[in-house]
Design goal:
There is one protein chain. By secondary structure, the chain is of the alpha+beta class. It has one helix and nine strands, in the order αβββββββββ. The chain folds into two domains: 1-32; 35-147, no CATH class. It has one helix spanning 3-30; strands spanning 48-50, 55-58, 63-66, 71-74, 79-88, 102-110, 113-117, 128-135, 141-147. The strands form two sheets. Strands 1-2-4-5-6-7 form a six-stranded mixed sheet, with no helix packed on it. It is elongated.
């Protein structure tokens, strides 16, 4: 394969990837989700469950695990983190990929302002850091939220 063909394939794959992500985000915003019951906490987390919502309460610096549709509220604040979806489409072996195809899509709400995150980091204006400590990119993610 010559260099020109390789560049053409890379450009086409990039366009398809961007179109797929945009299509996904547009479709996801049109989809309404119903609350998912809160799972039983693992020993690493000590949240309190609010029976009216699919929300757990956590402290800053505490590890907690969420599934799709579940939400965590930072104790004594107006800060919420909700898992919107997971992407699990790893790059096939012996292939060149632009992106590894795995992500946790979540949103963080700070005093009513919502920031959507699928890859990369939060905008500098968000006064919190969100770390994904562990995930299988299919069903769960373990987070830690810290003040900046």
């Amino acid at each position: 394969m010559n260099q020109k063909e390789s560049l053409s394939i890379t450009i086409v794959l990039g366009i398809v990837l961007v179109a797929g992500i945009v299509g996904y985000l547009v479709f996801d915003q049109r989809t309404t989700t119903s609350p998912v019951p809160t799972s039983t906490p693992t020993p690493a987390q000590t949240p309190t469950t609010n029976p009216d919502f699919s929300t757990i309460t956590v402290s800053l610096g505490q590890e907690f695990t969420l599934k799709k549709g579940e939400t965590a509220r930072v104790k004594d604040s107006d800060v919420f983190l909700r898992v919107k979806d997971f992407i699990y489409s790893p790059c096939p072996r012996d292939s060149q990929c632009i992106w590894n195809g795995m992500a946790v899509i979540y949103e963080i709400s700070v005093e009513g302002k919502i920031y959507n995150v699928s890859t990369g980091s939060l905008p500098q204006e968000v006064p919190y850091d969100v770390f994904i400590k562990n995930t299988n990119y299919k069903t769960y993610a373990t987070f830690v939220i810290n003040a900046r």
